[in-house]
Amino acid sequence: NLSNPTSPQFKAAQWMAIEDNKKGLPLKASGRFLQRYALMVLYFATGGEKWLHDVHFGNPNRDECNWNRRLNQKHSLGVLCKDNSARVTGLSIEAMGMTGTLPPELALLSNLEYLLLDSNSLSGTIPSSFRMMKSLISFSIAHNNYATVLPKWLGMVHQLKVLRLSNNNFKGALPSELENLTSLEILALDHNNLSGNFSIVKNMNWIEALHLGSNQFTDVLDDNDFLNMESLQMIDLSSNKLQGVFPATGLLKHKSLRVLDLSSNRLTGSILLPETISAGFSLKVLMLQENKLTGTIPHTLSTLKKLQQLDLSWNRLDGMIPTSLGALSQMISMTLAKNQFTAGGIPSFLGSMPLLRKLSLQATNRNGKIPTWIGKLTDLTLLDFSKNALTGNIPAHIFTLQKLKYLIVSHNNLTGDFPTDAPGNLNLSYRHAW
Predict the structure, then answer these.
(1) Per DSSP, what are the bridge partners of residue 333?
(2) How many CB atoms neighbour CB 98 within 10 A?
(3) Alpha-carbon distance 45 to 7, whole Å?
(4) 409 touches 385 (CB < 8 A)
C-alpha cells in the first residue's frame, strides 16, 4: 500500500514526511511515531477531508492528543488521551460522515481502550488485526453499513466490556467464540439480519445488558431459559421469529432485571408468573405485545410493584382484566389493546395510577360510559378507548387535562357534541368520537 499513491497508507506517510511539524517524535519506546501514522491512515481511509466537524484531526502543528473538540464537560469528539500520557486511549468519531473501510493500522494504537465510531457510513469488513488490541474494552460501530458475518476473532478480544454492532446489516449466525468474552457486560447486536439461535448467549451469565432485537432469530424459548444469567439488567429480544413460551421462571428470578422486551415474536401459551416474586425485584418495563399469548392476565403481575411500563396488546388474552393491577401505582404506560377480554366497563383501578401518561384499551370489549374520574389522571398524554362499545358523552373533565395530546375514541357508540373549546394541544386527527 505504501507504493500506491492513492492508498491511505501512502497519503499518511507522505503527510508525515512533508507536512507534519512533529517530525522529531521518537521512533522507538513511546510508539508516538506509529501512533500518529495510524491516526492519519484512519483519516485518509475514511474520507477525513470531508468529515462533518472540524476536530483538528491531522493538524500538523498540534500534538495528536489535541486532535479533538470538546462538546461538553463529559464528551469530546476526536482523539482522547489519558492523564497527559501522550498515549491514545480513545477515539470518539461519531456522526462525522466517515466513509470507506477501517484500516488494519488502527491496531497499532496499542493503548486504545475506547473505539466509538457510531452513526457514520463505514462498510466493508472489520480488520482482523483488531484482535491484537489487548487494551480495548469498548468497541462501538452502531448505525453504519456493515453487511458481513460476525468475525470469529471477536472472541479473542477477551477484555471487551462493551460490544455495540447495532443498526447495521450483519448476517448469519452468532459465532460460538463470543462465549470467550468473559468480561463482556453489554452486547448490542440489535437491528441487523442475524439468524439461527442464540443458545451461545444463554451461557454468558455475566452479561448485564443483552440487545438482540430486530433480527431473524428463530430460537424456541423454554420456561427455564436465562436461568443462570443473574447479572442481567436489560434484555431485548423483540421483533424476531422466536417461538415457545414466555420464560418467566428463568427471567423473573433475577432481582437486577429492569427491562424485559419479548414483543413482536411468535410466543404462545399463558403468561405464567411465579406465585412468589422477591420483594427486591425491580422490573420496570415488561413488553409482550404482538405475540400469540393466550389465557388470562395473572394476578401475580400485581406483585411487580416497580413496574412502570406494561404492554400486552395484540395477543389473544381473555377473561377479566384483573382489579389487582391497581396495586401497580408507579405505572406510567399501560397498553392492553386488541385482546379478547370479557366485556366490561373501564376498570376503576386505573384511577389509582396517578402517574399514567399513556393508556390504551383499544378493542378490548369495553362498554358503558367513560368514567369522570379519568379527568383526575392529570399526566395523561395519550388516551385510546377506540373500537369498543362505549356510550354516552365524553366527560368534560377529560378536556381539562392540560397534557393530553391524543384522544382516540373513534368506533364507539358515543353521543353528544365534541367541545368547540377543546384544548388546542389535542391532536385534531384523533378527535373522532363516532
Answers:
(1) 309, 358
(2) 24
(3) 8
(4) yes
Only one residue has cell 403481575, namely 301
Residue with cell 469488513: 125
- Output the DSSP codes for 307-358: --EEE--SSEEEE---GGGGG-TT--EEE--S-EEPPB---GGGGG-TT--E
Question: Measuring CA to CA, which residue among 75, 87, 85 is closest to residue 31?
Answer: 87
Three cell numbers, residue 99: 466513509
Q: Which amino acid, 57?
A: F
Q: What is the pLDDT of residues 127-159, one digit of tens each?
A: 999 999 999 999 999 999 999 999 999 999 999
Collect contacts of 367-372 with beta carbons under 8 A, ≥24 apart: 367/343, 367/391, 368/344, 368/392, 369/345, 369/393, 370/346, 370/394, 370/395, 370/398, 370/409, 370/414, 371/345, 371/346, 371/395, 372/397
Residue 371 near residue 361 (C-beta atoms within 8 A): no
Rounded Cα distance, 306 and 330, in Å: 6
What is the Cα Rg of the chain in Å? 27
Q: Which three cell numbers stand for residue 143?
A: 448505525
Which strand ranges, in their side-by-side order, compose the sheet holding 389-392?
367-369, 389-392, 413-414
- Where is average pLDDT lowest: 21-30, 177-186, 388-397? 21-30
Residue 116 β-bridge partners? 92, 140
One-letter identity of residue 158? H
Question: How does DSSP assign 136-169, residue by residue?
Answer: --EEE--SS---SBPPGGGGG-TT--EEE--SS-
pTM of the entire structure? 0.93
62 vs 78: CA distance, rounded Å: 13
